[in-house]
Amino acid sequence: MTMTYDAPALGTTPPDLGAEARCAAFLLPADGLAVREARRNVREQFGKWGIGLDDCDTAALVMSELFTNALIHTTSEEITCGLGVAPDLLLIKVSDEGGGHSTPSARKATLDEGGGRGLMLVKGVSDRWGVGPAKDGGGRIVWAVLRLTQP
User: Fold this and answer.
1) Cα separation, 85 vs 91, whole angstroms
2) Is the pLDDT reported for residue 103 higher than 70?
């Protein structure tokens, strides 16, 4: 039996990090090979902004999980990834083009399942996370906020 835990309400929007926040975005094809590039882009961009290695690695892990979910659970051809940093927070966003049949939710996978643990992992390392409609209305955005361990 699979159980669902703390499914975010559809319609939540990523938090506004404020006027002093630094932001970046990149677009990748919805392809399994692009997951590695998404992780690399996260480490590279956050590293340029002076974010510590541990926080970069955690952010890359979150990006990997959110990107993979968009890849597996939607009919997207491209996935937009967004990054933000404020004095003590990191924001990771993944926007898909839609076609998903359910709202992303953290669930406890059974021992014999090969997947299904990604959003529980995101929930575990994030300060908060949510799901809402993408700005263009055609898909959705899944986001996570991480509290910096080395502000």
Assistant:
1) 6
2) no
Q: Find out whether 99 and 77 touch, Cβ atoms under 8 Å.
A: no
Whole-model pTM: value is: 0.83
Task: Kindly report the CATH number assigned to the domain that includes residue 68.
Answer: 3.30.565.10
The answer to whether the CB of 39 falls within 8 A of the CB of 148 is no
Matching residue, tokens 């080395």: 150
Burial class of residue 38 in the structure, from the number of CB atoms within 10 Å of its CB (0-12 exposed, 13-18 middle, 19+ buried)? buried
Helix (H) or strand (E) segment spanning residue 78: strand 78-86
Contact 21, 84 (CB under 8 A): yes
Total domains present in the chain: 1
Domain boundaries, position 11:
3-147
